[in-house]
Tetratricopeptide repeat protein
Amino acid sequence: MGQGASRPRGGQEPPAHRNAVSEPSDAREATGVGPHWAALVCVAALVCIPVLLAALLVSPSSPTAREQQRASFVGSATCATCHAPQAAAWRESDHARAMAAAAPANVLGDFSGVTVTDGRHTATFRRDGDRYVIRTDGPDGTVADFTITETFGVDPLQQYLVLFPDGRRQALPWAWDSRPREHGGQRWYHLMANEPLPATDPLHWTGREQTWNFMCASCHSTGLVRGYDAATDRYDTRWTEISVGCESCHGPSAAHVAWAQAGALGEDPHRGLSVRLRDRSGGAWRFAADDPRGIARWEGPPRQSTAAQVETCAPCHARARPLVADPSPGQRFLDTHAPLLLERGEYHADGQIQGEVFEWGSFAQSRMSRAGVVCADCHDPHRGTLRAEGNAVCAQCHLPERFDTAEHHRHPSGSAGAQCVSCHMPAVTYMGVDRRRDHAFSVPRPDVAAQIGAPDTCTSCHTDRPQSWAARQIVEWFGPRRRDDPHPALAIVAGREGRAGGDALLAAIATDRSRAPILRATAVSLLPMPPSPATAQAIGAALLDPDPLVRAAALRTLDGLHPRNRLHAARFLGDETRLVRIEAARALAPVPLDALPEAARPAFVRAWEELLASERVAAERPEAHVNIATLLAARGDMAGAEAAYREALARDATHLGALVNLADFEARRGRHAAAEAALHRAVAAQPREAEAHYALALALARQGRAADAIGSLAEAAALRPEEPRYAYVQAIALNQLRRTEDAMAVLRANLERHPRHRDSLMALATIERDRGNFTEAERLAAAAVALNASDREAAALLSQLRGLRQRLPGIR
């Protein structure tokens, strides 16, 4: 389920968001110090609150189509009659035990009547015959007994599900640590022990963030139909096999069984299977005798199954937003999912895993992926284990005489440090006990890690040593040159933090097709808007990139442009990849149909329906309806947008994104009282959320009530000191109210925390200039220019101040 961490605001991975991504906003906040604060901040309406789209819910297909699909599954027992060795291996795998009925043969936890508490949460586990029961706080906060219906997973922990009358299966927060006792296991523990989690919290075990049907089902069962009914808000979720069976990867196999029974050997190259996973190209990985690197290369025809193998694993081993309901095995990944890019908080700037992002996103960065390596080259696809133990699995393609030596790994042979994974696959622990390895297979760079504030594999083991020591050791061993200098992490962190020159660094990565597509797409997504000539050229090149992930990211950047400048997206409405088509439609949302080329209009209508359908996949989620409302409003369908906002609030009347975006929607229609009322509801429901207070302040400012907004701004800045924008706008408001000393104090404190915040530097420089403190103003303006030499406003202010110094000798 993936629910082992605390809330996203706390800097950790949010629980149970395997298929969640944040929807970026079209809104762009104003910069600089203007004469009218209300005019400044009204541009910053909080349409930008991130919207999580993690749903796996609604199937628009008819019941007949669903039954036909289910009928084409035959079950793993049928497969085993002809494929006994593979079936025996599969039965030992975690896939086979991904989910099971709560029966004595499957339950690992101690249900002997024990009561467990961690100081915040308490539960009692008992057995009543073959029925397993937990006594804990329920959906209304009342302590009660709940019957466990299924087990969920097996190693290194097992979770448990409870079926509710509305068809929802909810994952309990108490998990059984199934590791051996000598490793700390054989105990109950709470997955979010540091969270109070009242029954009203979406993260409570009965809340929407822990709903199995929504968060987990598609990857833990076979032939799943989620069966969500939006009208009744109920589920009728069904599967053909409770766990991950053969057909989860090979696809429905009724036609294959018919082929086998007919004895038509050789007549069907796919043998009736919808997914072709077995490679029949006749090639192999071989070591070239004259290659000093000692790395195997593929020799022979191109591998026929490379894309199919990786894309079969990707939907369940990637952090991605589903684009279609109940996707079938064998569909192209980007036709069914929108994967998360290398986003802050989920990946470190050097691409290391940070949040619970699973394996695909890191593997997609690797040289191995670009060389044609697939998951099954290292993992037995049926047993799920490695094909060999220790370094032997790497030795399949990396010559041991070259790599498994002290001259290479610089550690005693046989030690933990001599293992390839110790240096090239750093691990992160999720859900308290689940240690997972990074699959980017990167080269250790403690020098880069020190610059970007990321961990490195050297000092993760040598905890008593600084990163500078590790960097020196690597230079001594291998020399100062690196194949990936300048390291792309420096561009990514520059883009994330708006550093000077970051746009040029990002543009260079975005247009370098030797880089991994996920890295190129991430670089494109970080390009500042509006674009400079250099970044505009990079976006243009990215639109023509051969990889659809990069094209989709480039289309998303067009959201920052005026609608008349988005017409370039029209040519992608008929792209072969669904993700690209829907991003083209999203970019063109505010463009009137008659403004499109006539030939593109039918394609827009089709792509627009695909876009809305991709949002409706999440019909249970309030966030999905907020997204739909935003899209409909962009098309001018105000009635439809209002109805979508009401749908969102019907699912959660306290949902922050719905209330804040509804308020902005109302304000744009001139209904300021309704907007303010929605924001007061948001503040009352989410008093610890800075966005609620900030949005209320903006609404008050639009009405010319800056004095009333000060308190809300101060609250937002206090709640999120890590966000410099809030304190900056608070200072602007104070200055407009002629509370200049207070404004300067807020700006100085903000710059102590965020010395590179350009707007605070400019604001304080302007105030100091107006007070006649030209020397200090010049220092601050120079610091702003140092951040970005092409910043015309900062350069003009600095030039003005230097001119004043020349004309007025003796000034401060």
